[in-house]
Each structure stands twice: as structure tokens, then as C-alpha cells.
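> run fold YdcF family protein
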Amino acid sequence: MSLALDYSGFKTLMLAALLPPAPLLALAAWGGWRLKRGRRAGGWMLAAALVLLWLSSTEVAAEWLSRAAGLPPALGPEEVVALRGQPHGAVLVLGGGVRRWVRPFGQGRPNAITGDRLAYGVWLSRRSGWPLAFSGGIGWTAGELREPEASIVARVAEQDYGLPLRWAEGRSRDTRENAANTVPLLAQAGVRHILLVTHEEHMRRAMRAFEAEAVPLGISVRAAPVGLRPQELFDFDVWCPSTAGFERVRYLVYEALARWAGR
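> ok
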């Protein structure tokens, strides 16, 4: 097998083992085994695993993790309008996944993450007057794809939003490659300012990668995060398990692992 396939399989295996709920289920099983053997500590391990399993599916845990990671500042509408007329800028949307085939459309479509980013990128482009760019290829764990994310998003941007992409980079497999492949492309076109569009959970890692590539070329990068929202930690429903809470917690843990791995 090729190196890419080896890395893809390794990454898939590690994520399955490290992302919730797998570690907590393993802790619960270990605690149950120790409890069965008459060790009281096993009961505490089992109880802790069950409590953490509950919390890992809640919005309140996601909010705690998000705040601990450091929330990027929101970009206000007045700040976006102030960009109009400033030259040499671009709105750059980062891919977050696509669906290979969606039956009602008869073609590939952005998933929810990429769809949210694209919608915000279009909004920013129209209000700032800056052209729109997109970066995303076929990710390490997206072996089922036959068409890069950039090709699918370019079609959707033109057909659904009436706003063709100025640049579409479709070779990147991760965030670090997004930066390495896209920044030189924009620099060659004379871009000196980038509005970087991705989710708040991903922004810290994305800014690290893009600033490393952009600063030596004299290009500024400004965060334009998607998903920022005030969250009341004392509302009853944020303490209850939900699909949104579970997905967000997994995403935050994934981003923490990715930052540690340097990808």
C-alpha cells in the first residue's frame, strides 16, 4: 500500500480509539471489571465514566471545552462593510467535508460544516467586495471521494449563490496543506489580506498554519469564524444530551488532537 493509504488507515484507527465515546466506554468497562473482582475503586471508575459519557453529549461540555481552547473574536458586520474599497483582499473558505452523492441533486454536495462556511464566505464576499476563494481537496480519511471538495463547492457557489469562486485549490488533504498550497496561489495573484473562514473550533489551528505561510510573504490573515454564539450555561437543556452537543464535543476533541499532532 502507498504511504497515503497507510497514514489514512492509521488516522482512522486512532480517531476511532481517541474520540468520544470510545475512551469513556473503555473506562466504564475497566471499572466494571475491577468492581466485579471486588475492588471498590472500580465502582468509582464506572461512575466517573458514566458521568463523563453524559457530559460528553451535552452543549455545556462543548462550551467549556471551547472556552478553554480560546474563542476567536467575532467579526462584526460593520467591520466587514469597512473592508469595502480596500484593495488586494480575498475571502478564503476552508473545506470541512462533502458528500460524494446526494440523490435529490444528482451530484456531490457540501456537508453541513462546509455548507455553513460557504454561506458565510459568500455573505462576507458580497459585503466586503472581496473575491471568494476555497481550499479543500480529498482528505486523508475521505477515500470514497472521487472529486475534490473544491470542485463540488465551485459548482455550488456558482449555481446556488451566483458567485463563482475566483480561486479553487483542490489538492490539500489537511489544514497544513490548505495553507501551504493556497497562500502562494493568492500571493501570486497580488492578494495581501485574507479573511479566513472556518468554524470557531478549527480557527486556532487554521490561523497557526496560515500565519506561518502568509507572514513571510507579507500577507495578513484575519479570522472570520463561523459558529460563534453566546451560550447560557445555566439553561436546563444545555445539560441534557443532544446530537448537537455530542458532535461539537467530538469536533473539539478532534481539533485538540490535530493541534497536538501538528496537522
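Residues 3-70+240-261 form one domain.
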